[in-house]
Amino acid sequence: MQKITTTALLIVSLFAFSQQKNTVQSKSFSTKNKKITVYTSADSTKLRLTQTDILTFSPSKQPLEIEISVFVEPSKTFQKFMGIGGAITDASAEVFAKLSKDKQKEFMNAYYDKEKGIGYSLLRTTIHSSDFASGSYTYIKEGDKDLKTFNIDHDRQYRIPMIKEAIKTAGGTLLTYASPWSPPAFMKNTNNMLKGGTLLPEYNQSWANYYTKFIKAYEKEGIPIWGITVQNEPMATQTWESCIFSAEAERDFLKNFLGPTMKKEGLGDKKIVVWDHNRDLMTHRANIIFSDPEASKYAWGMGFHWYENWSGGSSMFDNVRKVYENFPTKNLLFTEGCVEKFDAKKYQFWANGERYGISMINDFNNGTVGWTDWNILLDQNGGPNHVGNFCFAPVHADTNTGELIYTPSYYYIGHFSKFIREGAKRVSNSVSRSNLLSTSFLNVDGKMTTVVLNQSNKNVTYNLIVGSEKSVVTIPAHAIQTLVY
Protein backbone atom coordinates (compact mmCIF):
# COMPACT_ATOMS: atom_id res chain seq x y z
CA MET A 1 0.00 0.00 0.00
CA GLN A 2 2.86 2.35 0.92
CA LYS A 3 4.62 1.57 -2.37
CA ILE A 4 1.49 2.31 -4.40
CA THR A 5 0.95 5.59 -2.55
CA THR A 6 4.56 6.67 -3.10
CA THR A 7 4.34 5.82 -6.81
CA ALA A 8 1.09 7.75 -7.13
CA LEU A 9 2.63 10.79 -5.42
CA LEU A 10 5.62 10.58 -7.75
CA ILE A 11 3.34 10.51 -10.81
CA VAL A 12 1.34 13.47 -9.49
CA SER A 13 4.56 15.40 -8.78
CA LEU A 14 5.95 14.69 -12.25
CA PHE A 15 2.63 15.75 -13.80
CA ALA A 16 2.61 18.98 -11.78
CA PHE A 17 6.23 19.69 -12.74
CA SER A 18 5.38 19.02 -16.38
CA GLN A 19 2.42 21.42 -16.19
CA GLN A 20 4.58 24.04 -14.48
CA LYS A 21 7.27 23.59 -17.13
CA ASN A 22 4.72 23.97 -19.93
CA THR A 23 3.46 27.16 -18.32
CA VAL A 24 6.97 28.58 -18.04
CA GLN A 25 7.78 27.61 -21.62
CA SER A 26 4.50 28.89 -23.07
CA LYS A 27 5.29 31.49 -25.71
CA SER A 28 4.51 35.09 -24.76
CA PHE A 29 4.59 38.08 -27.08
CA SER A 30 7.94 39.83 -27.41
CA THR A 31 9.07 42.87 -29.38
CA LYS A 32 12.65 41.55 -29.56
CA ASN A 33 14.14 41.96 -33.06
CA LYS A 34 10.74 42.96 -34.44
CA LYS A 35 10.10 45.69 -37.01
CA ILE A 36 6.96 47.81 -37.03
CA THR A 37 5.29 48.23 -40.43
CA VAL A 38 3.11 51.35 -40.49
CA TYR A 39 0.13 51.79 -42.86
CA THR A 40 -1.62 55.17 -43.04
CA SER A 41 -4.74 56.78 -44.51
CA ALA A 42 -5.02 60.54 -44.03
CA ASP A 43 -7.31 63.43 -44.97
CA SER A 44 -6.06 65.93 -47.58
CA THR A 45 -3.38 63.47 -48.77
CA LYS A 46 -3.12 60.59 -51.23
CA LEU A 47 -2.41 58.13 -48.40
CA ARG A 48 -4.92 55.27 -48.55
CA LEU A 49 -3.87 52.16 -46.63
CA THR A 50 -0.37 53.14 -47.74
CA GLN A 51 2.78 51.73 -46.16
CA THR A 52 4.45 54.84 -44.75
CA ASP A 53 7.19 53.60 -42.42
CA ILE A 54 9.18 50.69 -41.02
CA LEU A 55 10.27 51.32 -37.44
CA THR A 56 12.22 49.54 -34.71
CA PHE A 57 11.86 49.17 -30.94
CA SER A 58 14.24 50.47 -28.29
CA PRO A 59 14.17 50.32 -24.48
CA SER A 60 11.44 52.46 -22.94
CA LYS A 61 11.78 54.73 -19.94
CA GLN A 62 9.08 56.46 -17.91
CA PRO A 63 7.24 58.71 -20.41
CA LEU A 64 6.87 62.37 -19.45
CA GLU A 65 3.52 64.11 -19.07
CA ILE A 66 4.32 66.31 -22.07
CA GLU A 67 4.72 63.23 -24.27
CA ILE A 68 1.79 61.47 -25.94
CA SER A 69 1.81 57.69 -25.62
CA VAL A 70 -0.08 54.60 -26.72
CA PHE A 71 0.38 51.78 -24.20
CA VAL A 72 0.04 48.12 -25.20
CA GLU A 73 0.30 45.37 -22.58
CA PRO A 74 0.33 41.98 -24.41
CA SER A 75 0.00 39.89 -21.23
CA LYS A 76 -3.56 41.16 -20.64
CA THR A 77 -5.97 39.64 -23.14
CA PHE A 78 -9.72 39.86 -23.64
CA GLN A 79 -12.30 38.69 -26.21
CA LYS A 80 -11.53 36.59 -29.29
CA PHE A 81 -12.01 38.34 -32.62
CA MET A 82 -14.60 36.84 -34.98
CA GLY A 83 -14.30 39.03 -38.08
CA ILE A 84 -15.35 42.13 -40.00
CA GLY A 85 -17.65 42.38 -42.99
CA GLY A 86 -20.70 43.95 -44.57
CA ALA A 87 -24.18 43.18 -45.84
CA ILE A 88 -25.07 41.84 -49.26
CA THR A 89 -28.57 43.20 -49.65
CA ASP A 90 -30.85 43.03 -52.67
CA ALA A 91 -29.75 46.59 -53.44
CA SER A 92 -26.06 45.63 -53.41
CA ALA A 93 -26.74 42.59 -55.59
CA GLU A 94 -28.87 44.52 -58.10
CA VAL A 95 -26.13 47.14 -58.54
CA PHE A 96 -23.40 44.49 -58.72
CA ALA A 97 -25.25 42.75 -61.58
CA LYS A 98 -25.03 45.96 -63.65
CA LEU A 99 -21.22 46.10 -63.48
CA SER A 100 -18.95 44.77 -66.21
CA LYS A 101 -17.19 41.46 -65.50
CA ASP A 102 -13.90 43.30 -64.94
CA LYS A 103 -15.48 45.71 -62.46
CA GLN A 104 -17.24 42.85 -60.68
CA LYS A 105 -13.88 41.15 -60.22
CA GLU A 106 -12.26 44.38 -59.02
CA PHE A 107 -15.10 44.88 -56.54
CA MET A 108 -14.91 41.35 -55.15
CA ASN A 109 -11.14 41.53 -54.75
CA ALA A 110 -11.42 44.94 -53.07
CA TYR A 111 -13.60 43.55 -50.29
CA TYR A 112 -12.86 39.85 -49.95
CA ASP A 113 -9.29 39.18 -51.11
CA LYS A 114 -6.87 39.29 -48.16
CA GLU A 115 -3.94 40.44 -50.30
CA LYS A 116 -5.50 42.60 -53.03
CA GLY A 117 -8.26 43.98 -50.80
CA ILE A 118 -9.32 44.37 -47.19
CA GLY A 119 -10.15 40.74 -46.42
CA TYR A 120 -13.78 40.76 -45.26
CA SER A 121 -14.70 37.59 -43.35
CA LEU A 122 -18.31 38.30 -42.22
CA LEU A 123 -21.47 38.65 -44.30
CA ARG A 124 -24.96 39.69 -43.31
CA THR A 125 -27.98 39.25 -45.54
CA THR A 126 -31.74 39.68 -45.25
CA ILE A 127 -34.57 37.18 -44.85
CA HIS A 128 -36.75 38.35 -47.76
CA SER A 129 -36.97 42.12 -48.34
CA SER A 130 -35.67 45.14 -46.48
CA ASP A 131 -35.89 48.76 -47.62
CA PHE A 132 -32.70 48.23 -49.65
CA ALA A 133 -34.43 46.41 -52.50
CA SER A 134 -36.42 47.50 -55.53
CA GLY A 135 -39.62 46.38 -53.80
CA SER A 136 -41.18 44.39 -50.95
CA TYR A 137 -41.51 40.62 -51.25
CA THR A 138 -41.63 37.41 -49.21
CA TYR A 139 -40.85 33.76 -49.95
CA ILE A 140 -44.47 32.59 -49.74
CA LYS A 141 -47.88 33.39 -51.17
CA GLU A 142 -49.79 35.79 -48.93
CA GLY A 143 -51.86 33.86 -46.39
CA ASP A 144 -49.84 30.63 -46.58
CA LYS A 145 -49.41 30.02 -42.85
CA ASP A 146 -48.22 26.45 -43.46
CA LEU A 147 -45.41 27.76 -45.74
CA LYS A 148 -46.26 25.23 -48.46
CA THR A 149 -45.33 27.75 -51.18
CA PHE A 150 -41.98 28.69 -49.59
CA ASN A 151 -39.21 29.22 -52.15
CA ILE A 152 -36.24 31.55 -52.59
CA ASP A 153 -36.51 31.97 -56.37
CA HIS A 154 -36.43 35.75 -55.95
CA ASP A 155 -32.92 35.61 -54.46
CA ARG A 156 -31.54 33.38 -57.18
CA GLN A 157 -31.58 36.22 -59.71
CA TYR A 158 -29.13 38.61 -58.02
CA ARG A 159 -28.43 38.01 -54.35
CA ILE A 160 -27.42 34.33 -54.24
CA PRO A 161 -25.00 34.60 -57.20
CA MET A 162 -23.28 37.59 -55.55
CA ILE A 163 -23.01 35.85 -52.18
CA LYS A 164 -21.50 32.77 -53.86
CA GLU A 165 -18.94 34.96 -55.64
CA ALA A 166 -18.06 36.65 -52.35
CA ILE A 167 -17.53 33.27 -50.65
CA LYS A 168 -15.34 32.12 -53.54
CA THR A 169 -13.22 35.30 -53.46
CA ALA A 170 -12.83 35.02 -49.68
CA GLY A 171 -11.22 31.60 -50.13
CA GLY A 172 -14.30 29.42 -49.76
CA THR A 173 -15.41 30.47 -46.27
CA LEU A 174 -17.45 33.49 -45.24
CA LEU A 175 -19.30 33.55 -41.93
CA THR A 176 -22.85 34.38 -43.01
CA TYR A 177 -25.85 35.38 -40.93
CA ALA A 178 -29.34 36.61 -41.81
CA SER A 179 -31.88 39.05 -40.39
CA PRO A 180 -35.61 39.56 -41.02
CA TRP A 181 -37.10 43.05 -41.31
CA SER A 182 -40.75 41.97 -41.08
CA PRO A 183 -42.94 38.87 -41.15
CA PRO A 184 -45.35 38.63 -44.11
CA ALA A 185 -48.21 41.13 -43.88
CA PHE A 186 -50.92 38.59 -42.95
CA MET A 187 -48.94 37.53 -39.87
CA LYS A 188 -49.05 41.05 -38.38
CA ASN A 189 -51.69 43.02 -36.53
CA THR A 190 -51.44 45.79 -39.14
CA ASN A 191 -51.66 43.49 -42.18
CA ASN A 192 -48.73 45.49 -43.57
CA MET A 193 -45.01 44.64 -43.85
CA LEU A 194 -44.16 48.35 -43.63
CA LYS A 195 -44.59 50.86 -40.79
CA GLY A 196 -44.13 48.67 -37.74
CA GLY A 197 -46.89 46.55 -36.28
CA THR A 198 -46.47 43.36 -34.26
CA LEU A 199 -46.49 39.63 -34.90
CA LEU A 200 -49.91 38.11 -34.19
CA PRO A 201 -49.73 35.36 -31.52
CA GLU A 202 -51.41 32.80 -33.77
CA TYR A 203 -48.48 33.04 -36.20
CA ASN A 204 -45.64 32.61 -33.70
CA GLN A 205 -45.00 29.05 -34.84
CA SER A 206 -45.36 29.81 -38.56
CA TRP A 207 -42.87 32.65 -38.27
CA ALA A 208 -40.41 30.49 -36.30
CA ASN A 209 -40.69 27.84 -39.04
CA TYR A 210 -39.93 30.53 -41.64
CA TYR A 211 -36.38 31.08 -40.31
CA THR A 212 -35.61 27.36 -40.51
CA LYS A 213 -37.00 27.17 -44.07
CA PHE A 214 -34.72 30.05 -45.04
CA ILE A 215 -31.61 28.49 -43.51
CA LYS A 216 -32.23 25.12 -45.15
CA ALA A 217 -32.98 26.70 -48.54
CA TYR A 218 -29.78 28.78 -48.50
CA GLU A 219 -27.67 25.87 -47.34
CA LYS A 220 -29.12 23.76 -50.16
CA GLU A 221 -27.75 26.46 -52.48
CA GLY A 222 -24.29 25.95 -50.98
CA ILE A 223 -24.35 28.96 -48.66
CA PRO A 224 -23.70 27.86 -45.04
CA ILE A 225 -25.62 29.97 -42.53
CA TRP A 226 -23.78 30.62 -39.25
CA GLY A 227 -26.78 32.18 -37.52
CA ILE A 228 -29.72 34.56 -37.47
CA THR A 229 -30.87 37.62 -35.63
CA VAL A 230 -34.41 37.54 -34.26
CA GLN A 231 -35.57 40.87 -35.67
CA ASN A 232 -33.89 43.87 -37.25
CA GLU A 233 -34.47 47.02 -35.15
CA PRO A 234 -37.34 45.66 -33.05
CA MET A 235 -38.17 49.01 -31.44
CA ALA A 236 -38.38 51.15 -34.61
CA THR A 237 -41.57 51.86 -36.54
CA GLN A 238 -40.04 52.60 -39.95
CA THR A 239 -41.61 53.64 -43.24
CA TRP A 240 -40.10 50.45 -44.63
CA GLU A 241 -40.33 46.77 -43.52
CA SER A 242 -40.36 46.74 -39.73
CA CYS A 243 -41.89 44.88 -36.80
CA ILE A 244 -42.01 45.75 -33.10
CA PHE A 245 -40.91 43.32 -30.39
CA SER A 246 -40.76 44.51 -26.79
CA ALA A 247 -38.00 42.95 -24.68
CA GLU A 248 -40.54 40.57 -23.14
CA ALA A 249 -42.05 39.71 -26.55
CA GLU A 250 -38.63 38.90 -28.03
CA ARG A 251 -37.71 36.87 -24.94
CA ASP A 252 -40.89 34.81 -25.13
CA PHE A 253 -40.71 34.29 -28.90
CA LEU A 254 -37.12 33.09 -28.54
CA LYS A 255 -37.88 30.89 -25.52
CA ASN A 256 -41.14 29.34 -26.63
CA PHE A 257 -40.91 29.24 -30.42
CA LEU A 258 -37.73 30.19 -32.27
CA GLY A 259 -35.20 28.43 -30.02
CA PRO A 260 -37.10 25.14 -29.69
CA THR A 261 -38.02 25.15 -33.40
CA MET A 262 -34.40 25.62 -34.49
CA LYS A 263 -33.40 22.73 -32.24
CA LYS A 264 -36.24 20.51 -33.42
CA GLU A 265 -35.33 21.14 -37.06
CA GLY A 266 -31.72 20.08 -36.49
CA LEU A 267 -30.44 23.64 -36.48
CA GLY A 268 -29.57 23.88 -32.80
CA ASP A 269 -25.93 24.62 -33.69
CA LYS A 270 -26.91 27.84 -35.49
CA LYS A 271 -26.34 31.00 -33.48
CA ILE A 272 -29.27 33.21 -32.47
CA VAL A 273 -28.53 36.90 -31.92
CA VAL A 274 -30.99 39.12 -30.03
CA TRP A 275 -31.73 42.86 -30.13
CA ASP A 276 -30.06 43.90 -33.42
CA HIS A 277 -30.82 47.56 -32.72
CA ASN A 278 -29.13 50.65 -31.29
CA ARG A 279 -26.87 50.98 -28.26
CA ASP A 280 -29.36 53.16 -26.34
CA LEU A 281 -31.70 50.37 -25.14
CA MET A 282 -29.32 47.40 -25.36
CA THR A 283 -28.70 47.08 -21.62
CA HIS A 284 -32.42 46.75 -20.91
CA ARG A 285 -32.86 44.13 -23.63
CA ALA A 286 -29.88 42.19 -22.26
CA ASN A 287 -31.26 42.32 -18.72
CA ILE A 288 -34.66 40.97 -19.79
CA ILE A 289 -33.49 38.18 -22.13
CA PHE A 290 -30.18 37.05 -20.62
CA SER A 291 -31.58 36.98 -17.08
CA ASP A 292 -34.17 34.40 -18.14
CA PRO A 293 -32.37 31.01 -18.19
CA GLU A 294 -34.84 29.39 -20.58
CA ALA A 295 -34.51 32.21 -23.12
CA SER A 296 -30.82 32.84 -22.53
CA LYS A 297 -29.82 29.27 -23.36
CA TYR A 298 -30.84 29.87 -26.97
CA ALA A 299 -29.06 33.24 -27.32
CA TRP A 300 -25.45 33.28 -28.53
CA GLY A 301 -25.29 36.98 -27.83
CA MET A 302 -26.48 40.45 -28.76
CA GLY A 303 -26.27 42.47 -31.97
CA PHE A 304 -26.32 46.26 -32.04
CA HIS A 305 -26.35 49.27 -34.41
CA TRP A 306 -24.96 52.81 -34.18
CA TYR A 307 -27.99 55.01 -35.00
CA GLU A 308 -28.81 56.09 -31.42
CA ASN A 309 -27.62 59.59 -32.33
CA TRP A 310 -30.89 60.11 -34.27
CA SER A 311 -32.09 62.01 -31.18
CA GLY A 312 -29.24 64.51 -31.38
CA GLY A 313 -27.06 62.82 -28.77
CA SER A 314 -23.68 61.14 -29.18
CA SER A 315 -22.74 57.47 -29.55
CA MET A 316 -23.37 55.48 -26.35
CA PHE A 317 -20.31 53.21 -26.34
CA ASP A 318 -20.49 52.75 -22.58
CA ASN A 319 -23.66 50.67 -22.93
CA VAL A 320 -21.69 48.10 -24.95
CA ARG A 321 -19.20 47.80 -22.10
CA LYS A 322 -21.99 47.39 -19.54
CA VAL A 323 -23.48 44.43 -21.40
CA TYR A 324 -19.97 42.96 -21.78
CA GLU A 325 -19.38 43.27 -18.03
CA ASN A 326 -22.84 42.15 -16.91
CA PHE A 327 -23.08 39.11 -19.18
CA PRO A 328 -19.50 37.95 -19.86
CA THR A 329 -20.60 34.59 -21.31
CA LYS A 330 -22.57 36.33 -24.08
CA ASN A 331 -21.06 37.72 -27.26
CA LEU A 332 -21.43 41.20 -28.72
CA LEU A 333 -21.67 41.69 -32.48
CA PHE A 334 -22.01 45.00 -34.30
CA THR A 335 -24.62 44.12 -36.92
CA GLU A 336 -25.26 47.37 -38.81
CA GLY A 337 -24.01 50.89 -39.40
CA CYS A 338 -23.99 53.25 -42.36
CA VAL A 339 -23.79 56.97 -43.07
CA GLU A 340 -27.35 58.18 -43.60
CA LYS A 341 -28.75 60.80 -46.02
CA PHE A 342 -26.87 60.17 -49.23
CA ASP A 343 -25.32 63.16 -50.98
CA ALA A 344 -23.05 62.52 -53.97
CA LYS A 345 -21.11 65.71 -53.15
CA LYS A 346 -19.92 63.97 -49.97
CA TYR A 347 -18.42 60.83 -51.50
CA GLN A 348 -14.99 61.86 -50.15
CA PHE A 349 -16.21 63.57 -46.98
CA TRP A 350 -13.49 62.45 -44.56
CA ALA A 351 -15.61 62.63 -41.41
CA ASN A 352 -17.76 59.77 -42.74
CA GLY A 353 -14.74 57.48 -42.62
CA GLU A 354 -13.63 58.79 -39.25
CA ARG A 355 -17.05 57.91 -37.87
CA TYR A 356 -16.33 54.28 -38.75
CA GLY A 357 -12.90 54.33 -37.10
CA ILE A 358 -14.20 55.91 -33.89
CA SER A 359 -17.03 53.39 -33.63
CA MET A 360 -14.89 50.35 -34.40
CA ILE A 361 -12.18 51.21 -31.87
CA ASN A 362 -14.70 51.93 -29.12
CA ASP A 363 -16.82 48.88 -29.88
CA PHE A 364 -13.84 46.53 -29.87
CA ASN A 365 -12.40 48.05 -26.70
CA ASN A 366 -15.78 47.49 -25.03
CA GLY A 367 -15.91 43.77 -25.81
CA THR A 368 -17.31 43.40 -29.33
CA VAL A 369 -16.16 40.26 -31.18
CA GLY A 370 -17.19 41.19 -34.74
CA TRP A 371 -18.25 44.23 -36.76
CA THR A 372 -20.60 44.25 -39.77
CA ASP A 373 -21.16 47.26 -42.02
CA TRP A 374 -24.48 47.72 -43.85
CA ASN A 375 -24.72 47.67 -47.71
CA ILE A 376 -21.35 46.84 -49.26
CA LEU A 377 -22.39 48.47 -52.54
CA LEU A 378 -24.95 51.08 -53.63
CA ASP A 379 -25.48 53.08 -56.82
CA GLN A 380 -24.90 56.77 -57.60
CA ASN A 381 -28.20 57.62 -55.90
CA GLY A 382 -27.49 55.77 -52.63
CA GLY A 383 -29.91 53.00 -53.57
CA PRO A 384 -31.91 51.27 -54.88
CA ASN A 385 -34.29 51.71 -51.96
CA HIS A 386 -38.02 51.27 -52.46
CA VAL A 387 -39.00 53.90 -49.85
CA GLY A 388 -36.38 56.51 -50.70
CA ASN A 389 -34.15 55.88 -47.66
CA PHE A 390 -30.94 56.56 -49.61
CA CYS A 391 -27.65 56.10 -47.75
CA PHE A 392 -23.90 55.83 -48.23
CA ALA A 393 -21.92 52.62 -48.69
CA PRO A 394 -18.12 52.31 -48.46
CA VAL A 395 -18.13 51.66 -52.22
CA HIS A 396 -20.57 53.08 -54.78
CA ALA A 397 -21.01 52.21 -58.44
CA ASP A 398 -22.02 54.78 -61.00
CA THR A 399 -24.23 52.61 -63.18
CA ASN A 400 -24.11 55.25 -65.96
CA THR A 401 -20.31 55.15 -66.31
CA GLY A 402 -19.64 51.71 -64.81
CA GLU A 403 -17.04 53.14 -62.44
CA LEU A 404 -16.50 52.22 -58.79
CA ILE A 405 -16.14 54.99 -56.19
CA TYR A 406 -14.17 54.15 -53.03
CA THR A 407 -15.06 56.38 -50.08
CA PRO A 408 -12.96 57.09 -46.94
CA SER A 409 -15.15 54.60 -45.04
CA TYR A 410 -13.75 51.74 -47.13
CA TYR A 411 -10.20 52.58 -46.10
CA TYR A 412 -11.05 53.13 -42.42
CA ILE A 413 -12.69 49.70 -42.23
CA GLY A 414 -9.73 48.20 -44.07
CA HIS A 415 -7.31 49.38 -41.39
CA PHE A 416 -8.97 46.77 -39.16
CA SER A 417 -10.25 44.03 -41.48
CA LYS A 418 -7.05 43.63 -43.50
CA PHE A 419 -4.77 43.19 -40.49
CA ILE A 420 -6.83 41.69 -37.65
CA ARG A 421 -7.70 38.11 -38.48
CA GLU A 422 -10.18 35.58 -37.08
CA GLY A 423 -9.06 34.10 -33.77
CA ALA A 424 -7.03 37.15 -32.71
CA LYS A 425 -7.25 38.19 -29.06
CA ARG A 426 -7.74 41.80 -28.03
CA VAL A 427 -4.98 42.97 -25.71
CA SER A 428 -4.80 45.79 -23.19
CA ASN A 429 -4.42 49.16 -24.91
CA SER A 430 -4.71 52.75 -23.68
CA VAL A 431 -3.72 56.26 -24.72
CA SER A 432 -2.50 59.25 -22.73
CA ARG A 433 -4.35 61.94 -24.74
CA SER A 434 -7.96 62.12 -25.85
CA ASN A 435 -7.09 63.29 -29.38
CA LEU A 436 -5.93 59.72 -30.10
CA LEU A 437 -7.95 56.50 -30.00
CA SER A 438 -6.39 53.04 -30.20
CA THR A 439 -7.04 49.31 -30.02
CA SER A 440 -4.73 46.28 -30.29
CA PHE A 441 -5.15 42.62 -31.24
CA LEU A 442 -2.68 39.74 -31.14
CA ASN A 443 -3.16 37.53 -34.19
CA VAL A 444 -2.82 33.76 -34.05
CA ASP A 445 0.36 34.00 -36.17
CA GLY A 446 2.01 35.95 -33.33
CA LYS A 447 1.83 39.36 -35.00
CA MET A 448 0.43 42.29 -33.05
CA THR A 449 -1.86 44.78 -34.78
CA THR A 450 -2.32 48.21 -33.20
CA VAL A 451 -4.73 50.70 -34.79
CA VAL A 452 -4.33 54.39 -33.91
CA LEU A 453 -6.76 57.14 -34.93
CA ASN A 454 -5.98 60.87 -34.78
CA GLN A 455 -9.15 62.96 -34.38
CA SER A 456 -7.30 66.29 -34.23
CA ASN A 457 -6.41 68.91 -36.85
CA LYS A 458 -2.67 68.53 -36.16
CA ASN A 459 0.02 65.92 -36.78
CA VAL A 460 0.74 64.01 -33.58
CA THR A 461 4.01 62.34 -32.60
CA TYR A 462 3.49 59.59 -30.05
CA ASN A 463 5.31 56.82 -28.25
CA LEU A 464 4.18 53.28 -29.00
CA ILE A 465 5.07 51.59 -25.71
CA VAL A 466 4.76 47.79 -25.72
CA GLY A 467 5.78 46.30 -22.40
CA SER A 468 9.28 47.69 -21.74
CA GLU A 469 10.02 48.67 -25.36
CA LYS A 470 9.01 51.69 -27.40
CA SER A 471 9.04 53.28 -30.82
CA VAL A 472 8.25 56.86 -31.84
CA VAL A 473 5.56 57.31 -34.51
CA THR A 474 4.02 60.31 -36.25
CA ILE A 475 0.40 60.26 -37.41
CA PRO A 476 -1.00 63.00 -39.70
CA ALA A 477 -4.02 65.13 -38.82
CA HIS A 478 -7.37 63.31 -39.21
CA ALA A 479 -5.70 60.02 -40.03
CA ILE A 480 -5.81 56.37 -39.12
CA GLN A 481 -2.78 54.09 -38.85
CA THR A 482 -2.29 50.35 -38.52
CA LEU A 483 0.96 49.21 -36.96
CA VAL A 484 1.91 45.56 -37.50
CA TYR A 485 4.78 44.06 -35.46
Automatic annotation (TrEMBL):
<comment type="similarity">
    <text>Belongs to the glycosyl hydrolase 30 family.</text>
</comment>
<feature type="domain" description="Glycosyl hydrolase family 30 TIM-barrel">
    <location>
        <begin position="83"/>
        <end position="420"/>
    </location>
</feature>
<dbReference type="GO" id="GO:0016020">
    <property type="term" value="C:membrane"/>
</dbReference>
<dbReference type="InterPro" id="IPR013780">
    <property type="entry name" value="Glyco_hydro_b"/>
</dbReference>
<dbReference type="Pfam" id="PF02055">
    <property type="entry name" value="Glyco_hydro_30"/>
</dbReference>
<feature type="domain" description="Glycosyl hydrolase family 30 beta sandwich">
    <location>
        <begin position="423"/>
        <end position="483"/>
    </location>
</feature>
<dbReference type="InterPro" id="IPR033452">
    <property type="entry name" value="GH30_C"/>
</dbReference>
<dbReference type="InterPro" id="IPR033453">
    <property type="entry name" value="Glyco_hydro_30_TIM-barrel"/>
</dbReference>
<feature type="signal peptide">
    <location>
        <begin position="1"/>
        <end position="18"/>
    </location>
</feature>
<dbReference type="InterPro" id="IPR017853">
    <property type="entry name" value="GH"/>
</dbReference>
<dbReference type="GO" id="GO:0004348">
    <property type="term" value="F:glucosylceramidase activity"/>
</dbReference>
<dbReference type="InterPro" id="IPR001139">
    <property type="entry name" value="Glyco_hydro_30"/>
</dbReference>
<keyword id="KW-0378">Hydrolase</keyword>
<dbReference type="Pfam" id="PF17189">
    <property type="entry name" value="Glyco_hydro_30C"/>
</dbReference>
<keyword id="KW-0732">Signal</keyword>
<keyword id="KW-0326">Glycosidase</keyword>
<dbReference type="GO" id="GO:0006680">
    <property type="term" value="P:glucosylceramide catabolic process"/>
</dbReference>
<protein>
    <submittedName>
        <fullName>Glycosyl hydrolase</fullName>
    </submittedName>
</protein>
